[in-house]
Amino acid sequence: MCKTRHILLVVSSLSAGGAERIISEMANWWVIHNQRVTVLTLSGTDQDHYQLNPKVERSTLDLWGRARTPWQIIDKRIRRIIKLRKAILKSRPDLVISFMDLTNVRTLVALIGTKIPVIISERTDPRYNPISRFWSLARRLFYPFSAALVVQTQSVAGWAQRVVPACKTSVIPNFVRTMPSCKISDREKSMILSVGRLGIEKGHDLLIRAFAAAEGAQKGWDMTILGEGNERLNLERLISGLGLTASVHLPGIVKEPAEWMQKTSLFVLTSRYEGFPNALLEAMACGCAVIATDCPSAPAEIINNDINGLLVPAEDVTALSNAMQKIIDDESLRQRLGVQALKVKTTFSQETIMAKWDALIENISKKGETTDERCK
């Protein structure tokens, strides 16, 4: 990006999550490349998990609070929009980028009539990530007012083009951040890792059942699932019921999952649906052998089956178990897949992906050119 601009990034929080990590990394990238950047979160700093470069300007609204009656809900929604509008106008950005569905709608509504271009981004697969009827309708009504809608995969682009004109749709995948180097030969040979929120969509129940069926514990392997969420109790019961308490561990959220990825021999992603899995990219960039479910909408755009990882049908415990058993029993296969996996560092490098963001911003910011003109 040649011209210096003030870019304001809006996200609900900087808590531990894939979208939050990416927006933090984007902000840090742009400030070291001579852009002015503000990160505005709807929550306070008490939820921050990721660290921003000191040059990034930080703004918080702390908008949350409980509403008990329908009128209080309406009042709070209006107040949130007004407060968001005031904060953005006070910052006087050249361009706003918003992440995630509800925040996207709030940002678009807040900036009606301001002529500030807004890029919105869906960070999961909207076809499988349900939101309420109210928010779904609001998304349909207000997304067309955006300057661009960014999605992460070609399959989600089809959905996007039914919501906004095709000329406003851009596919920009996640990048893989710079990962610490690690010798594949130095890994612990009996450790399986998975990283992701403990939610039903991540399919950790499938992973635990597959590990039991593959007899991983009997072969001396341990499995660790990093993350936290509302499925913890169900997963703990499943682990106990399968007699895996000594072999399957749920330590919660850790500050740096890459430190675990450097040690593990096998990384497994068992999601029922995805946006664009940062954890899978990072595990591959660390040289892990990987298995992933071929779920909507990203793993097949990252993994070339049996070349840089293994793909198995989504929600197929038998196929997952067979793939895990195959890699557990074959050290040479683990090493071959790990070596090929390292190539994601080039394919999905931050420099490559941020160049796509820069090109999109440059296109939107062309002097005197409106969004409607670009769509002709």
Structure description:
With 376 residues, this protein is an alpha/beta fold. The chain folds into two domains: 6-175 and 349-374, Glycogen Phosphorylase B (Rossmann fold); 184-347, 3-Layer(aba) Sandwich (Rossmann fold), CATH 3.40.50. 39% of the residues lie in helices and 16% in strands. The chain is built from 15 helices and 13 strands. The chain has helices spanning 18-32, 70-91, 101-110, 133-142, 154-160, 204-213, 232-241, 258-261, 278-285, 299-302, 317-329, 331-341, 344-347, 350-364, 371-374; strands at residues 6-11, 36-41, 57-60, 95-99, 118-121, 148-151, 169-171, 191-195, 222-226, 248-252, 266-269, 289-293, 310-312. A seven-stranded parallel β-sheet has the order 3-2-1-4-5-6-7, sandwiched between helices. α4 links the parallel β5 (118-121) and β6 (148-151). α2 packs across α3 (101-110) and α6 packs parallel to α7 (232-241). The longest helix has 22 residues, at 70-91. The radius of gyration is 22 Å and the shape is globular. The model is unreliable at 367-371 (pLDDT under 50).
CATH topology of the largest domain: Rossmann fold
Helix content: 25-40%
Number of strands: 13
Shape summary: globular
Structural class: alpha/beta
Query: Roughly how many Å is the radius of gyration?
Result: 22 Å
Largest sheet: 7 strands, parallel
Helical element count? Answer: 15
Low-confidence stretches: 367-371
What's the architecture of the largest domain, going by CATH? Answer: 3-Layer(aba) Sandwich
Order of helices and strands: EHEEHEHEHEHEEHEHEHEHEHEHHHHH
Strand order in the sheet with the most strands:
3-2-1-4-5-6-7
Strand content bin: 15-25%
Distance between the termini: 24 Å
Give the mean pLDDT: 91
CATH hierarchy, class of the largest domain: Alpha Beta
Name of the CATH homologous superfamily of the largest domain: Glycogen Phosphorylase B
Any idea how many domains?
A: 2
